[in-house]
Amino acid sequence: MNPARGSGAVADLFTGILAEEPAAEAIVDGGHRLTFERWWRSAGSAARALRELGVGRGDVVCLLLPSSAEFACCYLGALRLGAVVSGINPRLGPTEIGHILATAAPKVVVTAGPGLPPGAGGAAVRTAGEILTGPADDGFVAVRADDPAVIVWTSGTTGRPKGAWFDHEALQLIARNIGPLSARHDRKLSPVPFAHAGYMTRIYDQLLYRSALVLTPPVWRAEDMLETLAAERVTLGQGVPTQWEKLISLDALAGTDLSALRLVATGASRVPPSLVRAMRERLGCPVVVRYASTELPLAFGTDPGDPVEAVATTVGRPLGDVEVEIRDEAGAPLGPGRAGRIHLRSRAAMRGYWAGPRGAAGPRPADRWITAGDVGSLDADGRLTILGRADDAYIRGGYNVHPAEVETALLRHPAVARVSVVGTPAPVIGEIGVAFVVPAAGRAPAAEELRDWCRGLIADYKVPDLVVFADDLPVNTVHKIDRTELRRRAAAEAAARPRVSRTPSAPGH
């Protein structure tokens, strides 16, 4: 049952685990529990089935599967052959799946059920049940550090999804620089789809720290998350701010034992200071924020001992070997306090974008800097503040407005629980800002009250023209704020209330 020694870092890590604690839990998927030994054995069955389908070193295996123990076994089985693993979220539409399969050019596609996925081409298509049934291989193909290991697909918000590929060295660097997010024998709540970077790039992290991944039910509910945290004695809780806000509002939390929880990590959207304080108090552990992207899954993070204000308004300092530059539109570096496009560089970053049948020949800037999709600024202590997506900014009367600045101001008001700001077209002025506000429990602020509040904190042209109150904010499949839906609502609100609050000033006045 032991992997061959010296055949690669994954095999070497498994050798130690199987020799010392093979019965330790690796995956908890509802009632399905995998020990490390069983994971290795099931992955051996996957490796044999894939090998018999012609998969070898450097071939792509696409996993069109939900987050599950089966996904983890097929993932490891493909790696044992020296193959490149590409996860595909089954919630994507047929056009997106077809594009990904055409670009990945896989040898095999593994699916959850029968049927040919769109764009499979000449790839062999098998179900996870077929791949995981049968005798097991016991070996492991030797790989080099610069061999491609995984492909992670971007969300496609600015076009078709692109496949960011990582070699084994990048995955090892992520594991070594993960910081407080990993500790020996952690039990980690895993709420993200396995096809995303949060799982696809963390195999070495899990093996190095011998941690167990605890999956949440496919349809997220705060009650289920709370029950899982307690029943599975989770030590690291992970989720976006909206999930944590709903969880800590549950009456059942007061009588739930979460004493095993050592740390909570969040990100993906702004975290109000009031929420950070409430999470620390009600969950009884430190809270950290992480900032990353598909192309660089390890970028910035706050520390467990950071003050509330730092956790609420910044994403912390660079992790590992990450370098950062804030640049203006001409590409010139900007100093502390100046807002510009974020550029990142790290050996843990993607090596390029997958280029179809040509494989790993995708383009990559010669200096290896990655241009993030976000605008931000650095303070004198090296902490990064995210001002928003570059394409979320709107132009009001000739002035650029970053929604995050407006959101930060509104979140300081005690009557505001959550907020999201978007721009929408308007006559004469170009665009106006519309703030969607979820009031704090028991509070009913007036729109003009919140606009007056903003005038004391930010420039007048950044004050939202319209304030719309809502019981909740729309979220997408990964519980991030759905700005596309909010823009649709903002356009309707602006049409119903066509007058804006003031005429624009000329830029510079």
Automatic annotation (TrEMBL):
Q: Which InterPro entries match?
A: AMP-bd_C, AMP-bd_C_sf, AMP-binding_CS, AMP-dep_synth/lig_dom, ANL_N_sf
Q: Which SUPFAM superfamilies match?
A: Acetyl-CoA synthetase-like (SSF56801)
Q: Could you name the domain of life of the organism this protein comes from? A: Bacteria
- Which intervals hold domain AMP-binding enzyme C-terminal? 405-477
The AMP-dependent synthetase/ligase domain, residue ranges: 19-354
Provide the alphabetized UniProt keywords: Ligase
* GO BP annotation list: fatty acid metabolic process
Q: Which PROSITE patterns match?
A: AMP_BINDING
Q: Which molecular function GO terms apply here? A: medium-chain fatty acid-CoA ligase activity
Keyword Transcription carried by entry: no
Pfam families membership: AMP-binding, AMP-binding_C
Family recorded in the similarity comment: Belongs to the ATP-dependent AMP-binding enzyme family.
Its recorded name reads Long-chain fatty acid--CoA ligase
Taxonomic path: Bacteria, Bacillati, Actinomycetota, Actinomycetes, Streptosporangiales
